[in-house]
Amino acid sequence: MMLEKIAAADQIATERFLLRPVRKSDAGLFAMYAGDRRVAEATQGIPHPLPPGAEEAFVTRAMATGRDEDIWVMDGTPSGLPEVLGVMSLKKMDRAQSEVAFWVAPAFWNLGIASEAVQALVAANPQGNTTMFAEAFQDNPRSARVLTNAGFQYLGDAESFSVARNARVPTWTYLKRLE
Q1: In whole angstroms, what is the distance from residue 17 CA to residue 74 CA?
Q2: DSSP for 81-108?
Q3: Where are the alpha helices (DSSP H) in 2-91?
């Protein structure tokens, strides 16, 4: 078995888990968790049902050099939790801005995992942003609460396309200034 090395600078520690880069070995758990309709329908880009090979394509994209999005796994192994609790991403925009997105596996909902991850990501500010944005589907008030708990301010209503729902879905848009 080959162990993949991860630079400590690429990790963000929280009290209960690490935000760490994606590994090839994460693909199976991604397929299991992201294949859950509840997870897919809470995101913009995860299809449901998850097509064959989607998890490998996600891992390849997450590990590619020159990508416009940094992706971390919420890894609970430091505190005895499972290796994959969910995923965080920070998509680069122009003018030192990024968009935050996340999902947590249903087995770990209502445990504060997402709040802890978003707060750690904002505090670490790994891309040196002056502003972060995020969206939450209006039928997912828990995600909106995660964002407000991390200091994001409501900016307005919009809508985004959900691949799993094959529809445009009303969203709340949030902003966090880091200057």
Answers
A1: 6
A2: S-S-SEEEEEEE-SSSEEEEEEEE-GGG
A3: 27-34, 37-41, 54-63
Number of CB atoms found within 10 A of residue 52's CB: 8
Considering only the top CATH level, what class is 8-177? alpha beta
**Amino acid present at 152:** F
Residue type, 8: A
Which two tokens mark 166? 């094959």
Query: Does a cis peptide bond (omega within 30 degrees of 0) precede residue 126?
Result: no
Q: How many residues does the chain have?
A: 179
Contact 89, 71 (CB under 8 A): yes
Residue 133, classed as helix, strand or coil, is strand
Both structure tokens of 20: 């760490």
Q: Is 75 helix (H, G, I), strand (E, B) or coil?
A: strand
pTM across the whole model: 0.92
Q: Are 102 and 46 in contact (CB under 8 A)?
A: no
Q: Which residues, in sequence order, are CB contacts of 88 under 8 Å at separation 6+?
A: 19, 71, 72, 74, 100, 101, 102, 117, 118, 121
pLDDT digits (tens, 9 = 90+) for 151-164: 999 999 999 999 99
pLDDT digits (tens, 9 = 90+) for 66-83: 999 999 999 999 999 999
Contact (CB, 8 A) for 56 and 34 = no
